[in-house]
């Protein structure tokens, strides 16, 4: 499953709303740009007037006044441009910061099941590449395009006002520029996408080769990898050639279309002047306007390309908001600590249920072990009981309230899934613990550490609770990381825990040590243990056997052994082999 991408309409709506929200500062920045551009237009006009003045043999004082006015205009233009650029940059940063915050908020609200199904790669690409592309667009492309449009329109208008007949000569550049740019833009998108994909593949190959260097050496795969890298390089080279070819056609066309109006207005203007239809000054002014218009048009055209990239990134960023929420908190409070699952079904892939109507009632305070073959659905059921995934059909409720109807922080005070995936966040030890209980006092944090047997370790840290841990900070081994995770559970204090022992990567010594911490955390709580070792089952109050998405047997260890079903067979084969 892929994360959704917003439609062009939705992107337009989002962009429109952004413009709407910042209308005030945006109009201010634009007005400043208009004034600056207008001041810039005085140059050719004044120069044209000077040309006419000289041609007509006017006094030098008039020329001096014109020259002084020109200097003043240039100075004023510089000042207004500075203010305008400053305003637009500040606005761009502000809009981008808001976009990023909205995006982060949207990502944090994403249903976990969606993230798991879509994979994290897409999400990471959107938070890095797409946000970067968007930053360029918001910071530079949008302001540059707005300024370029304003400047182009004003310059054209000034040229027409100064010498309407002369300016008509400029038309020749239009069709060429239009045709060239269309040709380019139609092909560029595809070309750049291909280029980026080729480099992504090359990156992947090189990274993989470095990561697996030992394996490659052991298996004598160096030659294979080199050939693979070479073919990736060849592909990247081909894509570069392609986009270079596109640019090599487009750039000269664009350049030509900029020069043409200058030459055309000059030749055409000279003829008009000689025929008495225009003054030499008018021709000079219009030709200068044509020279001046090259810069904004060039910028406009080149940023258009960037704008396309930005729009497609915005579509991917906005798309994240289209994921429907899978929880509907109602504010209802559970009445009791009993958890019931009723006829629960779940599918990772539409139409392929992996749980086929499971019903289960957890008795407060009991320890229930779930056993069964790998792939039977134990972990999935565990996640449903902990409210990680909403059910596809049926319901899981605590104290009569469905898990999806609880606010997340409320849900975490009822039931928590404990896995051996644990993460130490970059920050102080206090921050790491307080995630679970933001209002806990230092004493409470220490008690929680005490409960999981990590108090001494924490007290011996260089700055105690203020020690920075996580990547780049004080290094925390896997066993300590697990203890921190367990201390978080003590702080969240849920009455029910779902324990997924799926992957034990810890060395046995650490495991034994941790088992003590763990049993302290489990004490006094209802526990569903997804068991991969049968002695967990033996010690449990009840055992549930999960087979092919159903609970096939449920009862105490002794009952099930007596019953002589699947569990009895498992136990027999395991017990026969094991010394304990
Ligand atoms: P168990 O914990 O008993 O080994 P699981 O609950 O992990 O079983 O898996 C039950 C079924 O669901 C399996 O067929 C497995 O392939 C499938 N499954 C588990 N996780 C996912 C997932 N993230 N996406 C798709 N299918 C999954």
From TrEMBL:
<dbReference type="GO" id="GO:0005524">
    <property type="term" value="F:ATP binding"/>
</dbReference>
<keyword id="KW-0067">ATP-binding</keyword>
<feature type="transmembrane region" description="Helical">
    <location>
        <begin position="66"/>
        <end position="85"/>
    </location>
</feature>
<feature type="domain" description="ABC transmembrane type-1">
    <location>
        <begin position="28"/>
        <end position="308"/>
    </location>
</feature>
<feature type="transmembrane region" description="Helical">
    <location>
        <begin position="26"/>
        <end position="46"/>
    </location>
</feature>
<keyword id="KW-0813">Transport</keyword>
<dbReference type="Pfam" id="PF00005">
    <property type="entry name" value="ABC_tran"/>
</dbReference>
<protein>
    <submittedName>
        <fullName>ABC transporter ATP-binding protein</fullName>
    </submittedName>
</protein>
<dbReference type="InterPro" id="IPR036640">
    <property type="entry name" value="ABC1_TM_sf"/>
</dbReference>
<dbReference type="InterPro" id="IPR003593">
    <property type="entry name" value="AAA+_ATPase"/>
</dbReference>
<dbReference type="InterPro" id="IPR027417">
    <property type="entry name" value="P-loop_NTPase"/>
</dbReference>
<dbReference type="GO" id="GO:0016887">
    <property type="term" value="F:ATP hydrolysis activity"/>
</dbReference>
<dbReference type="GO" id="GO:0015421">
    <property type="term" value="F:ABC-type oligopeptide transporter activity"/>
</dbReference>
<feature type="domain" description="ABC transporter">
    <location>
        <begin position="339"/>
        <end position="573"/>
    </location>
</feature>
<keyword id="KW-0997">Cell inner membrane</keyword>
<feature type="transmembrane region" description="Helical">
    <location>
        <begin position="140"/>
        <end position="160"/>
    </location>
</feature>
<dbReference type="InterPro" id="IPR011527">
    <property type="entry name" value="ABC1_TM_dom"/>
</dbReference>
<keyword id="KW-1003">Cell membrane</keyword>
<keyword id="KW-0547">Nucleotide-binding</keyword>
<dbReference type="InterPro" id="IPR003439">
    <property type="entry name" value="ABC_transporter-like_ATP-bd"/>
</dbReference>
<keyword id="KW-0812">Transmembrane</keyword>
<dbReference type="Pfam" id="PF00664">
    <property type="entry name" value="ABC_membrane"/>
</dbReference>
<dbReference type="InterPro" id="IPR039421">
    <property type="entry name" value="Type_1_exporter"/>
</dbReference>
<keyword id="KW-0472">Membrane</keyword>
<dbReference type="GO" id="GO:0005886">
    <property type="term" value="C:plasma membrane"/>
</dbReference>
<keyword id="KW-1133">Transmembrane helix</keyword>
